[in-house]
Specification:
Elements lengths: L1 H26 L10 H23 L4 H4 L4 H29 L1 H4 L9 H21 L8 H26 L6 H30 L3 E10 L2 E8 L12 E6 L8 E5 L10 E6 L16 E8 L13 E6 L3 H14 L5 E7 L8 H7 L5 E7 L9 E2 L4 H7 L8 E5 L2 H13 L7 E3 L6
Parallel strand pairs: 7-8, 7-11, 8-9, 9-10, 11-12
Antiparallel strand pairs: 1-2, 1-6, 2-5, 3-4, 3-6
Helix pairs in contact: 1-2, 2-4, 2-8, 4-6, 6-7, 7-8
Length: 441
């Protein structure tokens, strides 16, 4: 399984590099303009490379399952962020070289006097800068997630179109008819991808609605949202995966949020998400009424025991509502009659924060399940573990074959980071520790 995933990861990495390099390689073949020296040509190369990287950004967020499967959507999104910063750095270098050595080429900044294609290039630069700043500092700037997401999509699209217009207008390396045709086709491909993501995909979602069957409290300010399909067969997913959820608005409005399934993967006709009040959207779940319509885009993710059919056992370590995907794993294993051992280490602040406490006790009768509850602020008379999930606790509680089993971590980032370090110190191979990197509320 791991060798197969590595091969697919290498394939898609190669495709990414080809898509980024292809425009530059094509434009530099055949007859090339004489140019104005090394720094001029280098600046042009940086500009084309930046634009190609920004184009591929739309592919990274299109959620194509085959491309995302070897890495996981969370890794793709994290790479998307870093790639955007690198692409903007290339774009800034393109501009700075011209600003220092070829200032006359830039001309006036006045859009009423400057050529339209130069104004388009400047507009693209400013729009891309706004995309980067608003994304990296969304939380410090107190930008609402839903508003940011809509603005992000609009600004990124406008910036890319303005950059394409700039290249078409300058017509420096694209003067040859065949090059212009190839560049135009390449640009139209990315425009078509934008239309697919923003229009075609939401339209498909609109034709597959879900109905809210139940909203039930779970304690600790968490709620389980239960959905059933309307007019379609539902959704098959793997335990531990997630989907993007849209409620009370059209899928075209891009107000969707990722949540892990908490229900058993055996029953795809009824899906459940357990959501804690952590942000503006999640705080509204308790007000959702049965009968309301929802839409799902999924399933996604590689955070699943199903990817490890030969593992001798599993250790699940959850913090707070991070137990939601773990419940999907345990419920699925119980429904399948799984015989391999599971250990769940569940960390919370107080006793009232514990989720699914009674059901976890019942699952012990259906599974080879070892349950370890950990409280940071235990009440008097508490007989479970107390404090944090640290190296000492793990060394005391983990099974004897701790270096052979697969680990799944889900919870607040400080906790998962600390657990990873503790597992590494205990000799657990990095490849056997799995977690997701989403931080959206």
């Amino acid at each position: 399984m791991r060798n197969h995933s590595f091969g697919r990861a290498a394939l898609w990495t190669g495709i990414y590099l080809l898509l980024v390099a292809a425009p530059l390689l094509v434009l530099l073949t055949g007859q090339v303009p004489a140019g104005a020296g090394f720094w001029w040509d280098f600046s042009m190369a940086l500009g084309f490379a930046a634009l190609a990287m920004f184009g591929v950004q739309f592919l990274l967020t299109a959620r194509f399952r085959h491309a995302a499967a070897p890495f996981g959507i969370d890794i793709i999104y994290r790479f998307h962020r870093y790639a955007a910063v690198i692409a903007f750095g290339l774009l800034a270098a393109h501009f700075l070289i011209l600003r220092v050595d070829y200032v006359e080429t830039l001309g006036t900044i006045d859009p009423f006097v400057a050529p339209w294609y130069m104004s388009a290039g400047r507009a693209a630069f400013v729009l891309f800068a706004l995309v980067i700043v608003s994304s990296l500092w969304r939380k410090p700037l107190h930008i609402d997630y839903d508003h940011w997401r809509m603005a992000h999509a609009l600004l990124a699209t406008l910036a890319f179109l303005a950059a394409v217009a700039h290249v078409e207008g300058v017509n420096y390396y694209t003067a040859a008819p065949w090059k212009r045709l190839l560049w135009t086709g390449y640009s139209l491909f990315w425009v078509g991808l934008i239309l697919y993501v923003r229009l075609a995909k939401p339209f498909v979602m609109l034709r597959r609605p879900w109905r809210v069957a139940e909203v039930r409290p779970e304690g600790g300010k968490a709620w389980t949202l239960s959905l059933v399909p309307q007019g379609h067969a539902g959704m098959r997913f793997a335990a531990g995966q997630f989907a993007w959820l849209t409620l009370r608005v059209s899928p075209f409005q891009l107000r969707e949020h990722p949540f892990s399934f908490s229900s058993s993967a055996v029953d795809g006709e009824r899906v459940e998400f357990t959501i804690k009040e952590l942000g503006d959207f999640s705080a509204t779940i308790k007000t959702v009424q049965p009968g309301e319509t929802a839409w799902l885009d999924g399933p996604y993710g590689v955070f699943s025991p199903d990817r490890h059919p030969h593992a001798p056992g599993f250790v699940l370590i959850a913090g707070g509502v991070g137990v939601a995907p773990m419940m999907s794993m345990l419920r699925t294993a119980a429904d399948r009659g799984e015989a391999r051992p599971y250990m769940l280490i569940c960390a919370n602040n107080r006793g009232e924060d514990i989720l699914f406490g009674d059901e976890l006790e019942r699952l012990r009768a259906r599974l080879d399940l070892t349950l370890v509850q950990v409280l940071a602020e235990p009440p008097e008379g508490w007989t479970g573990e107390s404090g944090q999930v640290d190296r000492a606790l793990l060394e005391r509680r983990l099974p004897a074959n701790r270096r052979d089993v697969e680990y799944f971590l889900c919870g607040p980032k400080p906790m998962t980071d600390a657990v990873q370090q503790a597992l590494r110190a205990l000799g657990v191979p990095l490849a056997q520790v799995h977690f997701e990197l989403f931080d959206m509320v």
